[in-house]
């Protein structure tokens, strides 16, 4: 694919992703925190429906590509190999989940808040990138 | 926020992620897309930046056109906790090689057992952390 076209598609994908997060209420940490307070009087199922419908749509796209074996621009497509379930995966998910539950932000919503210039969101983002760096260097 | 908004939001997210898949066979894992910006690899940098700018600029437009969608009424929103949380999210997402989007949406859709395990673990850890915050600060 022409690089310029893919840049435009990447931008559109990111922008649409942000709109979806917003419409689904996932940009507000309160909705994440309430979802995670499973079993309490604050519990809200919103995230479950957001994730469920996103999975429904993406599954169809995946099934389509798996059968076609070619992307829309004609490059070969094969599904990624399923890796092993190891300690690093479980420990990483554990740390990720704790961080997520403390504040109610994950990478998508945090980046979507970038240009709102909020001190806290910028602090979160800077720390997240530091975490990426630490992880790629030492873990 | 009603269930219909959640479903509509999810459909939009699914379509957004599908764009990268159907045109170029890529996975819309946001932590992976963002983290690999740090490697400045030629030919693999611009599309990542483009995706991240798409997220950020749409967020800005939302804040001007539909401020309710970017409202923050979360609890415990202090700078210290934001930084602590961001650090754990960053380290954890790279160790697990994915986050809510890459594992929770794309991976589960592909039937990846790794992604199912990661999602169950981070959800369970999130529940514990949310209850921990509630117990400690309230």
Brief rundown of the structure:
The complex is a heterodimer of chains A (139) and B (138). Chain A is mainly α and 139 residues long.
Total helical elements of chain B = 6
Outline type of chain A? globular
Strand content of chain B: under 5%
What helical percentage do the residues of chain A reach? 55-70%
Instruction: Report the helical percentage of chain B.
Output: over 70%
Which regions of chain B have little confidence, pLDDT < 50, spanning 5+ residues? Answer: none
Poorly predicted parts of chain A: none
Approximate shape of chain B: globular
The count of β-strands of chain A is 0
The end-to-end distance of chain B, rounded to whole angstroms, is 24 Å
Mean pLDDT, all residues of chain B: 96
Gyration radius of chain A (Cα, Å) is: 18 Å
Q: Give the biggest beta sheet of chain B.
A: none
Could you walk me through the main structural features you see in this protein, from its secondary elements to its overall organization?
The complex is a heterodimer of chains A (139) and B (138). With 139 residues, chain A is an all-alpha fold. Chain A contains six helices and no strands. Chain A is globular. The mean pLDDT of chain A is 96. Chain B is mainly α. Chain B has six helices and no strands. Chain B has helices at 3-24, 30-35, 46-65, 79-95, 102-109, 113-137. In chain B, α5 packs antiparallel against α6. The longest helix of chain B has 25 residues, at 113-137. The two termini of chain B are 24 Å apart. The interface between A and B is large, with 112 and 106 residues.
């Amino acid at each position: 694919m022409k690089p310029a076209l893919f840049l435009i598609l990447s931008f559109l994908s990111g922008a649409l992703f942000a709109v979806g997060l917003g419409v689904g209420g996932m940009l507000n940490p309160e909705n994440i925190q309430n979802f995670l307070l499973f079993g309490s009087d604050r519990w809200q199922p919103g995230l479950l429906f957001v994730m469920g419908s996103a999975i429904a749509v993406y599954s169809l796209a995946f099934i389509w590509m798996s059968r076609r074996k070619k992307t829309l621009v004609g490059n070969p497509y094969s599904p990624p190999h399923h890796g092993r379930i190891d300690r690093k995966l479980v420990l990483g998910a554990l740390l990720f989940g704790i961080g997520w539950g403390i504040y109610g932000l994950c990478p998508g919503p945090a980046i979507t808040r970038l240009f709102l210039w909020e001190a806290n969101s910028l602090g979160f983002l800077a720390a997240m990138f530091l975490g990426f760096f630490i992880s790629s260097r030492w873990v | 926020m009603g269930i219909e908004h959640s479903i509509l939001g999810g459909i939009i997210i699914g379509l957004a992620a599908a764009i990268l898949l159907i045109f170029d066979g890529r996975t819309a894992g946001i932590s992976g897309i963002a983290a690999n910006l740090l490697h400045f690899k030629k030919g693999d940098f611009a599309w990542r930046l483009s995706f991240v700018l798409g997220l950020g600029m749409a967020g800005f437009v939302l804040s001007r056109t539909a401020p309710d969608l970017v409202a923050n009424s979360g609890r415990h929103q202090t700078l210290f906790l934001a930084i602590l949380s961001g650090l754990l999210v960053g380290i954890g997402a790279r160790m697990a090689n994915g986050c809510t989007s890459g594992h929770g949406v794309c991976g589960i859709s592909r039937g990846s057992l790794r992604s199912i395990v990661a999602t169950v673990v981070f959800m369970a850890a999130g529940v514990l952390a949310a209850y921990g915050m509630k117990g400690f600060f309230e």
